[in-house]
Amino acid sequence: MSVFTPVSRAEAESLLSGYDIGELVGLEGIAAGIENTNYFLDTQAGRFVLTLFEKLSVAELPFYLGLMAHLAARGVSCPAPVADRRGRTLTMVNGRPACIVTRLRGASVDTPETIHCAAVGASLARMHLAGADFGMQMDNPRGPRWWHEAAGLIDRFLDPPQRDLLRSELDYQDAVRAAELPRGVVHADLFRDNVLFEDTRVGGLIDFYFACTDVWLFDVAVTLNDWCLASEAAVDAGRANAFLAAYAGVRSFTDVERCLWPVMLRAGALRFWLSRLCDFHLPRAGEMTHAKDPGHFERLLRVHRNGPLPPLP
Q1: Is the pLDDT of residue 287 over 70?
Q2: pLDDT tens, residue by residue, 163-206
Q3: Domains, the chain, ranges and CATH?
Q4: Helix locations, 61-157, DSSP H
């Protein structure tokens, strides 16, 4: 969540004139994140978030907005798209596709404890099951095909050891990634800043704009890779075991998932190493942006390649 496309107060007021959520009270740009333009939008009727999509097309957005509406209707605490007076949840603001969604209560947790990790594990499993009957599909735009495309873009910025690591891991993932893993809707970016907590209770899951159809175990790995680290690149066994046990308490892991768990942990680290390399070396101009350190996921990938890894229950 960043501000690439400015929205003035007058422009926000004009937008709200087509909705039944009251007049504008406050408008504040959100600086965190790197993909879309986001504003906190306060009106007489409540608190909302205005998102302008900087990369996603109008054709892609019905999947994301439909998914959030689907999950919210099934009891998952996530942003719900707000329709205008004509029943549309998708609009245009300053030449960008845009939407207004409900703003959830709570705050992100920077240093999660075991109880937070367990709550996130259970919430992720419930989200997977709630999305199992969602009628639309979207291939992962940051999946294996993109990994190879991104590797070509950033190759010139890598030193020889990094280049060798990347090529070796891509070859490994190409050889062992299996299609028989259970799959469905995944969040694909459930980092600490995308979960809101009220004390130790999950108040909501946010930022579904990397959501797609992929293997559930990949989503588990991506989430563990952020929530369950003891240091820069070391997995905390207590938090990891709590996270995985809580997930398994809602949806049991299969034998195939247990076999390919190490592969998915590495895949999750690879995906975010590549995206951070692209963001760092090939940045987009933005009014407020934050490129994150790609070295973090390089180190984590090396840790996962060397093991030992937390086992699935």
Answers
A1: no
A2: 999 999 999 999 986 778 999 999 999 999 999 999 999 999 99
A3: 9-102 (3.30.200.20), 114-306 (3.90.1200.10)
A4: 61-73, 114-130, 144-154
